[in-house]
Amino acid sequence: MEHVKDAMAKGTWLTYRPDIKILDCTIRDGGLINNHMFEDGIVKAVYDALVKAGIDYMEMGYKADKKIFAQDEYGRWKYCDEDDIRRIVGDNATGTKISVMADAERTDYHNDILPKNESVVDAYRIATYIHQIPTALDMIKDAHDKGYETILQLMAVSIVQERELEEALQVFAETPVSAVYIVDSFGAFYSEQVRDLTVMYMKALEQTGKEVGIHAHNNQQLAYANTIEALIVGASRLDATMNGIGRGAGNCPLELIVGFLKNPKFHIRPILEAIRDVCEPLKAQMEWGYMVPYMITGQLNRHPRTAIAMRAGGAPTDYVKFYDGLMEEES
Amino acid sequence: MEHVKDAMAKGTWLTYRPDIKILDCTIRDGGLINNHMFEDGIVKAVYDALVKAGIDYMEMGYKADKKIFAQDEYGRWKYCDEDDIRRIVGDNATGTKISVMADAERTDYHNDILPKNESVVDAYRIATYIHQIPTALDMIKDAHDKGYETILQLMAVSIVQERELEEALQVFAETPVSAVYIVDSFGAFYSEQVRDLTVMYMKALEQTGKEVGIHAHNNQQLAYANTIEALIVGASRLDATMNGIGRGAGNCPLELIVGFLKNPKFHIRPILEAIRDVCEPLKAQMEWGYMVPYMITGQLNRHPRTAIAMRAGGAPTDYVKFYDGLMEEES
Hints:
Two copies of one chain form a homodimer. Chain A has 14 helices and eight strands.
């Protein structure tokens, strides 16, 4: 059974891959469920656990434009004001970096992103759909010039044409970003597709020193499997959330990826504590995780918004009606 | 992006793989949660859905020895008496075959398994741990001589030594079984290990015409990913359950595998109906699916019984205490 031995050997090798960096987006992606209305106690508990667990990045939320998103509709982690972040992390004298996501066309980045020397934020993740790339490039330049690490999230890759994706990667190679993520916004990818995309991203960026990352969703119970697949092929930036919390079907569970890596840099026990103390109580107020409607949108390569609306509506378990409705649209 | 095209091509190829056979074990593996006490209405609804969905086999339960397992403690699907099965399926004039699982050392097979011409059962799946193989071989002979298709489930392969496994496969190659399953009883395997085991099983059985199957558990959210992995390498017998129902973390969800295959032989809509009408109401009485304690036993390659007991006990969310307890045992 030599093949099995090879697999084991790869496992051991992974143990010592120093390039692996985990970004926890429990509060950021979880915030998409509750309009970013997490109380300070919850955010602090997550932060403390991530620091103890040795997680590389904690993403606090979005840097949304207050002129577009009214403050009476969203919690503070929609905006990530400096004072709010500092109330949780102080000067953040820890090994865990702080990141914030900035959506193209939804961020007043020139005004709202402070110079790095006035901020405890370490990195901005610029999230962009393919048609917003010109704006994203200006956002990257702005944040980079202000002194931040910049990271690029090209959203919804499962609906991007191959030729456009190749062009986009060539453009990204010229930017100062430290990493480019494969973002499976719709939870539509199978592991083979993730493997091939990872190879494609790595090839496009190999001369630049930039790293490849993976952000997966669990619509088809593949978020963790796809994350491992990308990792094995060479991705080194891994997104995860505690207990898989996140919009719709949720994300790659942090406890699974840390348990898999067996990397001495990471510790699972503080994560289990936070799942017990933070995620379990949240389940009474928020819903996330694999459910049939999310599977259906994932398999159809569609945004989960219809499935989210269905779960919040009057017939949250009428999977047949939901399926029939989408099938009618497809035909 | 040629690799992606290859992946797509494989997907299309899968569409027409006529050797793929799905066995639904909703009632059999789900019965491990409720001591096999399903009402007839539920079993009938599952049967009707599977027939409509074009699923190849429905597994009804176990053929347990009534001298070992008292009938006042278990429901009728622990024993699968002929009359009980016929009350659901009549003469089963459908394309869905009926299978029953028979555990080595827990079945009075000589007496309780009728000759095939007196039974509506099509196949017996003989489940055996490695040390019970001599008994399993006699059970296979008995059921085969009586006229049944026989299928072999070697349990808990993740704790079987490689040399013993190779010997076992050589022995199985000499039996009349139609298929041998890779059974990940503890939900311990990663996809690479499943791939290598599938290759090993196929190689050992390639001259015999026997097929390779996969029965996965979802402790690490990999039941479906591992099932696809085995399928792609060449396994053609796939176990699944509706909505992943099954002991502990549950099984590979039938809706996911049918959605993936896009095989015209299978239909997803009757499965969605049954999930809505059968599985959703059951959730009020039975618990299954991914949870942290099952992840922990899976990663430690242990039987889920401690995790099941923990969930049924007084501290069902104290994941830290559970983890600490198992870590202490390991040290």
